[in-house]
# Entry
Amino acid sequence: MTTTEAGETAPSGDAHEVVTDHDRGIHGYHQQKDEHLKRLRRIEGQVRGLQRMVDEDVYCIDILTQVSASTKALQSFALQLLEEHLRHCVADAALKGGDEIDAKVEEATKAIGRLLRT
# Structure
């Protein structure tokens, strides 16, 4: 039997096997899922507002100001999600060690690279 982060035990042939939330399909954003959905709905409203502004022939600079606000909101959301990924998914992989931690760090590094290019 193996003790998990939640204090649960799991049957195991390997006494060093760790079962994490990530193994059970629980992602780092799970605890804040409702907050994230609320935030994304707000961003969706901003984007719909952009469509309305274009439809109503609003001045270009005013539209660009709203584009900037929408972009900043998405970037802020992405950073929060990245932090949760590092604290949960990468941390879980670190508990397991081996190749899994290397894969998660590489995955996170690539995600950070994509965010920096935006």
